[in-house]
Amino acid sequence: MTERRELPGGATLYALESHAVPLVSITIATRTGCALDPVGRDGLLRIALRMLRRGADGLSSADIEDTIDRLGAELAIDVGSSVTTLYGQVISRNVDAFVSLLCRLLSSPTVDEAELARLLRETRAEILEARDNDRSLAERAFRRAVFAGHPYGRSSRGTQSTLEGISRHEVAQSLATHFVRGNLVLAVAGDVSVERAARLAERIVMSVPQGSSTPDVTPEPAPVQGRRLVFVDKPDRSQTQIVIGGLGTSPHDADHSALLVGNAVFGGTFTARLMKEVRSKRGWSYGASSRLNIDRARHSFSMWTFPGATDAAPCVALELDLLQKWTQGGITAREHAFVSKYLVRSFAFDIDTASKRVHQLLDEDVLGLMPGYYGDYTERVLSTKLEEINAAIQARISPRDLTIAVVGTASTSFNAVRDACGELASATTVAFDAD
Amino acid sequence: MNREQIVTRVNAALASQACAVTYLGSHVFGDTAVQRYRLTNGLQVLLLVDKSAPVVSYSTWFSVGSRHETPGKTGLAHFFEHLMFNETSNLGAGEFDRKLEESGAESNAATWFDWTYYYEALPKDRLGLAVKLESDRMAHLVLREPQVTSEREVVTNERRFRVEDDVEGSANEELYKLAFTVHPYHWPTIGWMKDIEAYTPEDCREFYATYYAPNNATLVVVGDFSEPSLLEKISKAYGALTAAKIPHEDTHPEPPQTEERRVVLSKPTPTEKLLIGYRGPALGDVDHAPLSVLAEVLFAGRASRLYRSLVVRDETVTDLRGWVSTFRDPGLFEMYFTLRDGSDSRSVLAELDAEIARVATAVVTDDELERAKARLELSTLQGLETASGKAEQIGFYETVLGDPSGVHRRLEAIRRVTPSDVRTAARKALVPTSRTIVVVKPESGGAS
What we know:
By secondary structure, chain A is an alpha+beta fold.
């Protein structure tokens, strides 16, 4: 059973002991994310986190990397709009030494000028390299269009221009803003007792300054009016990447759970409507799915397919038609019964490791989800009525107000795709190598 | 009840001894053990009870992969990874997935050069469904024109996704095509596009009849279940299936490579990519563990030698990776470099050559060895966190090496590696005349 402990300075710990494998996972999350990056400085927080392992407390970047490897550990970062996570895992015999290292990284980051300059050059090279990934190009175009002018539309990685000239002072300031005791939520799971986990977590918390969390002032995003096509032009594509959608759900909506169930019928499983129509019946795309992203404020609903270039236009038309039918007609009682069984029974795989179990509670905490968001999930699914689901789909998903982001070769696919979109408020083409 | 008693009880309940189960012994697996059984028709069954979560992983490993295909029919093994989710004579189209999803199960499959495997992860009370569905599709798959046509479309799209429109995928395909000339590792597991487009139902029926048989398969079940009850279900469901005459494999060993091979491709990519494949050992070869350690020393993590020289010091590379293929037959020691804008593959290759010369001369340090071993231990343990992870390791090592505990034996071998083992293995494998190089150049001359 996961235990919740209060830590000094307002931090919180979730801990769970499990001896399934001799590993310990340690997550240090902040209740703030890159939405706090200053305007024009997209990517700052991610740079600040990466700088943690580039020098601290007399240790050079090389010393830190040597130590992580020698301990049989890994350390990863994840920067979201509202939450930042440092995730570590270590062979359990070395957990004390690993925590000592984490404390040194957090307490005294060097933020060396030369290391920072090197990291910025490295990151700019990675951004350039990301142009090879058509799916991420499609997702970026979609996110920018759906959340234009909103923090959710910004990139946690940054762009070539926003990284330009990030200073040592800005990095230090960013770390000081996010890594204060009152802003931390920790999770420790695995081959360690809860008591020992609490002592380790306390050491980590005491390594950062006192301070309280910065309130999240992210506004509710405004819906985009009408249908908009954003075509990302890339040469020599035999295939397209297509992301279609708009605003979705907020975890605070009364109909949030109902919409999650409705989406599972539409595109959340291998036998869902999208997969059945796009892949099974027509063979147009290897994958076809829909998803609802969850954050503190309302986030996106999106469909994803990747048909061959010649099937792109009919695939877009089919997806729009399926979306129209889903929002107008809702789901059937049979589909509801089926997907409820799936969602309830498959929940076993959301909690089959100690790390997964403890992270659910951490997510509830840092994202401000209602208590029991995960723990009572199966009960909520079972108690959701068909009419609630269909009302939620109709209220939240608008087939009129959609962003259609496509990566493909414009000379061969643009016109046909545009014609398949129905009435468009706008249709734009952007180069795949634009910043 | 001991295993002999379990088998006696299971066999006593059978209508026919043609489905009888034999207990073949146990294999130590960490601090527990995998139990091995065999049905009369040759089906191997490996069971590991693990009650750490209320779930079960059920996988079926077939000893058939792309190495068993013939030129003109490449990709058939992978094609079955799709066909097997279709109609059987007992189940309509789509019913396989529907029944599993209704039970909250996850299912998928994978194909590689040496094997194909199918798995289900189920809540523990739904295990019987996996037994029923897997035994059914092992023998009763419907292979007619509509099924083949529909999946052919899906697989051509999968190939576009993984190869045609993917820079690394297409370059990797080229590397193996060039490195292997007579061994079937020459062609990609997904198959050549022209072969995929030409599959007929007859091709599929023949392949199915040849390789999808109980005596060519191993069931691996890991999780929270009762061994006697599961064995009874398995023997009843699979016992009546007929063994096939599995053809003797007709594989030609790849002759030694005596000169460097090189190809330059042009792709719409912002920067150069460099792929190198040195002839590497088979997974079961004594040099595999030392070379895996060397791959860590040279490529893995930010403390590795080449990361420090190429990414940190020279700033000529964005990303680099190196690993030794885990195949039944000798494969490749693969290396992959993503160059920075304006950098040239010649300078990267020169740095690699200098580093290879160094490892062939001076031994790696104790500190490097310790770090490499710790990294490999961590990744091994991470692979054993879930029931599905354990099942995958058991099935993989059983199918490739005939040893379900191979993952632990490999970890022991890695712990025994000495600096001189690494040097000797490097001297043997990292020979310039036995390497193949693929350079990918940006089509328009680069990003800037």
